[in-house]
Design goal:
The complex is a heterotrimer. By secondary structure, chain A is an all-alpha fold. Chain A is 72% helix and 3% strand. In chain C, helix 3 crosses helix 14. Chain C has 15 helices and no strands. Helices cover 74% and strands 0% of the residues of chain C. By secondary structure, chain C is mainly α. Classes of the chains: A mainly alpha, B alpha/beta, C mainly alpha. Chains in contact: A-B, A-C, B-C. Chains A and C meet through helix 1, helix 3, helix 4, helix 5 and helix 7 of A and helix 1, helix 4, helix 5, helix 6 and helix 8 of C.
């Protein structure tokens, strides 16, 4: 920093200009059109201006409420579990003298390479009434009769949460691991010499230094879970009785399954944007830099 | 349209220029492009039709692009909503409940067949009804899903029943039979999947009713067929005769592995049933059970699609002529469609052909297709309207409550209200 | 005591690994069985692998789709790493109030479900005559707020003294980026490469819409068609899934050494 601030700031703009312009063009321009569309309602290409009609419809829409409820439920339960697991695993795998590190790292990351459609199909067949998971539980005498996982509202949500956690924990683990690699090992050595326990080191050294990445994963995971779609479509299709439906699925239904109302679909999409933006803002305030 | 070369991304193959509006007619070849799902059934049908058409028109060529039904609907809607006809094919497969939705949402997009050479009186009336919007006919009827009660003769015999006991029964009788079957053989009578509305659709249509009325209003209250349908559905669920399944593969697995004694489904289920080769000779088909109310028939329909032609496509006339000459009026096509793809159409003249009269060893030498086509003449015609999917979702939402014993009238009122909110 | 702690750690990791790997075992077993056996829940190896593979190659253009996916994924990944690291670096190292505001604004773009902007995007590309091309598939997702965010956060722990040292050595601002930042941030680039490659490799919705001809199809589109026919052949589907999983596994193996090396080894 110092006297060259304004010149360096200018150079900084050179770095960010092109990427920002690309995002503005390919994301914001369509977003604006979508925003304009959110004030129209109709079917397919036959639609008319309705002002704030869609937004007031949204507030009293029971389907939307159900979708919102489900989506927020997933968010509150799944994201903290997943981030916490990812952090612990990354920390364990960051130890220099742990044996079989490579194996564990690969194994736990592997779920991330599956495509969302593929692994959803796998989970759906695994949790079928006659499926592997029930067979396993019965063989271990944990249950006597197969559980109809996907036909019970509570269990179906559990399956969805389990699937997402399985799929994305490794993803977050990688982020944490690469961030932890940037921490100079000598800092840990010095702390050990000073007598700090490993646990203490984790909370006083690792976590603070990885904080920017924790914030990153929190925002990204919140965003991802609030937009949850593929798993719900392919494992439960929103059922039983809309108990697993998410907001993204509702948007998809409004556009491609029901008689298409693209205007209202755009309105519901903005509902997601607003919720994610508010949550992201809160998260940044809590976990951001103090500069 | 002048953008085709740039869009090819550099590969200017002459034999695959099907990436702008439909096909092309270069150097004497006449080509159309079609989008369809399920290449071994729908795609095969188009190829059979093409072979037949080529007998008189050797320069004809068809390219069938395969994608899943959901993907096709996404692509179609995206294209049309963006107002872009470039990239659309000439021919599109459409599921019957979506016909009115497409025609009304994207006016002027699909070709009007009303004054074409196709003789619609030669097709099952209920299929033509589905294709008619505001007195115009928008496509060519394709396969039908006329339903039947497929049953395992060996299991039913073991439980003490004969073929006659299953002829033209009501659903209540079906349930009683099912209880005896379960008791005496330990097998389930059928499957049940509360997430899948196939059964309620079959029940409704068998009584000439549907989730929505002809003018697209919710048909849940003051509708005896709806009330009776849900009563029967709950009775099946409560009776313990139905095995719960959560998806398609489990459903098919249940009869392939011999866990269930019957399957009430469309004629196209034959292929899956016959996959279990160790069950050869052990199956037969009876008419669909009926609802015990006025207007209840022992015939219904599940599924079925039709072919649309895109109005703005460059090869619209060729596509219409091709479809009209084959799927729209060739007995030869329908015979080959049946023998080579196991597909049953709704073209009445073909019903008396040898192919349709054949007996099936798998089904104990019953002339199944003759039976199915006979039943197809009894299927009540209904209007599928524009909002079938919204109505089904509204029902799906309340179904768990109904199955748990909630007051039916109240549930129906709830569904009606939910539906009305969805179709603002 | 130490042994107990080590045992506990290993137990935890083993359980996590088994849970992670189990569905893959299921997939590999499924590959060798017939569809009806898979549906019945058979958990032993069958002898249908050869048939499944040949049926897959006969009934779908899976080889071409594989190449299409590969080309798109590789080009996208390279471009994304370059553009997003530039921006992340720029936003963080040359931080200013206005840049902060711009970045916060850009973040909004992540929050919109893609399905909602798909139609305007489609219209745009159609008007430019770019439909059905690799360009159409790559352009919209080349630069994402997500990746910029990733680089930005990681750059917070990048030691600025290195930049000062570089300036003292006479390097201009761009050379600082290429000669000091990029080599130092190898673990970040490696993670970003894996994530981006995977996202592009598995990308489904936009390629579905933007591509029309069958010979341009990408791998996920093939799997989707297979999974949704009336009577899906699960044996073939499992083979297709395994094939589509191989490249990302390979990339991970190649790049994962970066996680072990850490910073010390890469500062010249």
């Amino acid at each position: 920093m110092g006297g060259k601030l304004s010149k360096s700031s200018l150079i900084g703009w050179q770095f960010v200009l092109l990427p920002s312009a690309l995002i503005l063009l390919f994301s914001f321009y369509p977003m604006i059109q979508s925003f304009i569309l959110s004030f129209e309602s109709g079917k397919g290409n036959v639609s008319e201006f309705v002002g704030l009609g869609n937004y007031s419809r949204l507030l009293s829409d029971p389907m939307f409420r159900q979708a919102l409820y489900n989506t927020i439920l997933y968010l509150i339960i799944q994201v903290p579990i997943m981030l916490f697991l990812g952090l612990i695993i990354a920390h364990l795998l960051n130890q220099p003298n742990l044996k079989f590190k490579g194996f564990y790292r690969t194994a736990i990351f592997l779920p991330c390479v599956t495509s969302l459609v593929s692994y959803s199909i796998l989970f759906k067949s695994m949790f079928a009434v006659d499926g592997i998971f029930n067979k396993l539980l019965m063989n271990l005498h944990i249950i006597n009769e197969p559980i109809a996982w996907l036909m019970d509202p509570v269990w179906a949500r559990v399956v969805i949460i389990a699937a997402i956690t399985w799929r994305w924990t490794g993803y977050n683990m990688i982020f944490y691991l690469s961030a932890m690699q940037n921490i100079d090992p000598s800092v840990y050595e010095a702390a050990s010499i000073d007598g700090a326990s490993k646990l203490r080191q984790f909370f006083s050294i690792t976590i603070p230094m990885v904080k920017p990445i924790i914030l990153f994963t929190a925002i990204i995971s919140t965003n991802g879970t609030l937009q949850l779609f593929d798993e719900v479509i392919n494992i439960t299709n929103g059922g039983p009785g809309n108990s697993t439906m998410t907001i993204s699925q509702y948007i998809y239904n409004l556009s491609f399954v029901y008689t298409p109302n693209f205007g209202y679909a755009a309105t519901v999409s903005y509902a997601i944007v607003i919720i994610v933006a508010v949550l992201a803002f809160i998260q940044m305030k809590i976990g951001g830099d103090k500069k | 349209m002048a953008t085709s070369l740039a869009a090819c991304g550099g590969s200017n193959d002459t034999n695959n220029a099907g990436n702008t509006t439909g096909g092309s007619s270069e150097g004497g070849k006449q080509k159309v492009v079609a989008w369809a799902w399920d290449p071994s059934f729908n795609g095969k049908a188009l190829n059979i039709a093409a072979e037949i058409y080529k007998q008189e028109h050797p320069e004809f060529e068809i390219e069938v692009v395969d994608m899943s039904k959901a993907d096709l609907e996404q692509k179609l809607n995206t294209n049309l909503a963006a107002g872009v006809t470039e990239g659309l094919p000439d021919i599109i497969l459409v599921n019957d409940p979506n016909i009115q939705k497409y025609v009304n949402s994207y006016p002027g997009t699909f070709a009007d067949f009303t004054n074409s050479s196709v003789d619609y009186s030669q097709f099952s009336q209920y299929k033509v009804d589905a294709l008619t919007v505001d007195n115009k006919i928008y496509g060519i009827p394709f396969d039908i899903g006329v339903t039947g009660l497929f049953y395992r003769t060996d299991i039913l015999t073991e439980a003490g029943f004969t073929a006659e006991d299953l002829e033209n029964i009501t659903w209540d009788e079906y349930i009683e039979i099912g209880k005896v079957v379960k008791e005496k053989t330990g097998k389930y009578m059928s499957t049940i999947n509360p997430n899948d509305e196939a059964l309620t659709s079959v029940l409704l249509q068998s009584a000439g009713s549907w989730y929505i009325t002809a003018d697209n209003k919710g048909n849940f209250v003051d509708n005896p067929a709806m009330t009776e349908t849900l009563r029967v559905y709950k009775a099946i669920s409560d009776s313990g005769i139905a095995k719960p399944v959560t998806g398609w593969s489990e459903f098919v697995g249940s009869f392939n592995s011999g866990d269930v004694a019957t399957v009430v489904s469309g004629v196209w289920q034959i292929a899956s049933i016959m996959d279990a080769q160790d069950q050869k000779g052990l199956w037969a088909v009876a008419p669909t059970p009926r609802l015990n109310i006025e207007g209840g028939e022992n015939a219904s329909n599940e599924g079925g699609s039709s072919w649309f032609v895109v109005e703005k496509s460059a090869n619209k006339d060729l596509a219409m002529e091709f479809l009209g000459a084959t799927i729209g009026g060739s007995s030869e096509f329908y015979e080959r469609f049946l023998t080579e793809a196991g597909g049953v159409g709704s073209y009445i003249p073909s019903f008396s052909s040898e192919a349709y009269q054949q007996t099936s060893e798998f089904f104990g030498n019953q002339a199944i297709y003759a039976d199915f086509t006979e039943w197809s003449t009894k299927v009540p015609g209904i209007s599928l309207g524009m909002y079938t999917q919204e109505a089904k979702d509204a029902l799906k939402n309340e179904l768990p409550n109904i199955l748990n014993g909630a007051d039916l009238q109240k549930s129906l009122a709830n569904i009606q209200q939910l539906f009305e909110q969805q179709v603002q | 005591m130490r042994h107990l702690a080590a045992f506990g750690k290993h137990l935890f990791l083993i359980v996590a690994s088994v849970i992670s790997l189990f569905p893959f075992l299921w997939m590999i077993i499924g590959m060798t069985n017939t569809s009806s056996d898979i549906v019945k829940g058979q958990f032993s190896f069958g002898s249908n692998l050869g048939t499944n593979i040949s049926k897959l190659f006969d009934s779908t253009p899976i080889g071409t789709a594989f190449m299409n996916s590969l080309i798109i994924a590789v080009i996208s990944t390279v471009l994304t790493l370059l553009l997003c690291s530039l921006a992340g670096y720029g936003f963080e190292v040359y931080r200013s109030k206005n840049k902060d505001r711009l970045f916060a604004f850009l973040l909004l773009s992540m929050m919109m479900p893609f399905a909602a902007i798909m139609i305007p995007l489609f219209k745009m590309f159609s008007q430019w005559g770019l439909m059905n091309s690799v360009v159409a598939v790559i352009l919209p997702t080349m630069t994402t707020a997500f990746m910029i965010f990733f680089f930005l956060q990681n750059t917070k722990s990048f030691p600025r003294e290195l930049l000062q040292a570089g300036r003292v050595d006479g390097l201009n601002e761009w050379k600082l980026f290429t000669h000091i930042y990029m080599p130092t941030m190898k673990p970040t680039y490696a993670a970003a490469a894996i994530i981006t490659f995977m996202a592009n490799w598995n990308n489904f919705l936009w390629p579905l819409i933007a591509l029309q001809s069958p010979e341009k199809k990408t791998l996920p589109l093939i799997v989707s068609s297979l999974a949704s026919s009336y009577n899906p052949d699960y044996g073939i589907i499992m083979v297709a899934i395994v094939i589509s999983t191989i490249p990302t596994v390979l990339i991970f193996f190649l790049l994962q050494k970066q996680f072990v090396q850490g910073m010390l080894g890469s500062v010249k």
